[in-house]
Design a protein that fits this description.
2 copies of one chain form a homodimer.
Chain A: E1 6-12, E2 16-23, E3 28-35, H1 42-59, E4 67-74, E5 78-79, E6 84-85, H2 99-107, E7 111-115, H3 116-127, E8 135-141, E9 145-151, E10 154-155, H4 188-191, H5 193-205, H6 212-218, H7 225-233, H8 237-260, E11 265-269, H9 277-290, H10 293-298, E12 300-303, H11 310-327
Helix pairs in contact in A: 3-11, 5-8, 7-8, 8-9
Chain lengths: ~325, ~325
Amino acid sequence: MSDTLYYVGLDVGGTTMKAGVVDDTGKPSSSVSLPTEPHRGQEFGLERMCETIRKAVATNGLRMEQIAAIGVATPGTMDIPGGLILDPPNLKPWRNVPVRQHVQDAFEIPTAFQNDANAAAYGEYWSGAGKGVHSMVLFTLGTGVGGGIVVGDHVVEGEHSHGAELGHMKIEMTAPRLCGCGRYGCLEAYASATSVVARAREALASYAAQSALGALAEKGDALTARAIFDVAAAGDALADRIVEETAYYLAIGTTNMLHIIDPNMVVFGGGMIAAGEPFLERIRRHVRRLAFPVPAEKAKIRYAQLGSDAGFIGAAACARQLHKRKSS
Amino acid sequence: MSDTLYYVGLDVGGTTMKAGVVDDTGKPSSSVSLPTEPHRGQEFGLERMCETIRKAVATNGLRMEQIAAIGVATPGTMDIPGGLILDPPNLKPWRNVPVRQHVQDAFEIPTAFQNDANAAAYGEYWSGAGKGVHSMVLFTLGTGVGGGIVVGDHVVEGEHSHGAELGHMKIEMTAPRLCGCGRYGCLEAYASATSVVARAREALASYAAQSALGALAEKGDALTARAIFDVAAAGDALADRIVEETAYYLAIGTTNMLHIIDPNMVVFGGGMIAAGEPFLERIRRHVRRLAFPVPAEKAKIRYAQLGSDAGFIGAAACARQLHKRKSS
């Protein structure tokens, strides 16, 4: 029998859950995805989690006895130290689900529990964009803006499981936009994919010249953040303005993290990273103007590297951390 | 000879430096202050630091051999791991001053080095308002807005000595105020004592009714943040508006820290705390509206307790941390 240490990470999302085995060096093997189907209830959900973990281990030709620890990442709201999902908007009708205890009892293997965005940050820190740095901040750009902070192998999860809710830092007081959280002025209300589309629709309404965004807007679902970035890259002036403003908003968020955490690296993940290096360069340009010279020059600004695997890899990293603590 | 462990903390400011002995439980004994006189040059300054430390030890009837470690806190800019003051605006003409090495060589005692606001936060965490909590954020309200973050006995000093520069988080984009740092939209530009006075002068200029602030403004130096808070407490409507807005700005800063660090406690220090409990209650009220319900309800919002001793006590806490690391 090999001495290699293996960990299983499970990333539970509103639509699918994904599990994979990761070795002690952070190298993932092939992963398994199953539909979450939250409407079938939380008992079903807990069993589905175990099934996904079991399949991930079997797919890789391993036995459960070879797994040193398991990590599970879920969306909030949650009680991280308690191992509970509380009242997650993306997993209705689940409520107060004892995820960690259930998984740990099912397999009799030590199990770690973490918020999904924190896990993604820890995954990128362990074996993605942040590999080798001491501290890293992640912004994930999707329907919302998620975040994770890792400093010296410590995930900043906060005392009440609200650490690194970076989409909900306030960046505007005079004319604050309404955020998906029901409050005003949050970064997410400016820089999420959803907000990019909302801002494009508003800009179109008062735009006199021609823009390729007009035709997209009339087709309903065709006006996506991705389409706006594509049209901007093709030279559309209005789309370019929306993209430039998005870079500015993200630079404000980045600057705040440089002045609060002062990490080695700020990483952007999520669908918007398809915009490529030119978009990152726009963010960097604004940061150089907005931030103190030293962190603006020294902090690296990069894209995430693990894609949608970051969550399960980070969950496995949490499992590894738990295992190392128990072994030391 | 007693087994008690003693540490010396030295807090270097632009006008005076203050040193005191602190025991292993965080209890400070009497302190010594000497003028910094930065204009006399950095060689003089380094010798003055040693003199202040020596006097603090002698005043308390101790010998240097009884000191387990020394901690020195200074204003920025600085290289914390390198033990250097770089180019501090409040200590001109000092430049690239090897503070830690000099003090350590002079006494042959292990010496720690920290930013003054970080040290103040660590002091309040160790033996002031934050005693017993796991994590704490400090805002110091003076000429500027300083900050410190402590999570699990770890001071968030950042990778480039720019951690917890909380006065320079951006909170406004549409009509951003000019900050003392030369950039725009920083919290400091809204909520420092200096900014409170500037905002009061602006408000007076467009205020039609009578306000007691008018007479103060004509007397030049009489319009201070303290005076504005006093006049507000006496019922002046315009002054009350300025105070209320200040509470709102600080609540924005607090909310951002609840959503980024999610600490057990947020502490306010500096001259403005003379405004007392009613001002803190105004901040809390805004936070309950601005922040997520769980951290808004659970995080304690308090005033600092150590006054101008926080810096040297925190510097001593850094000395203690260094000693414990070396001993373990």
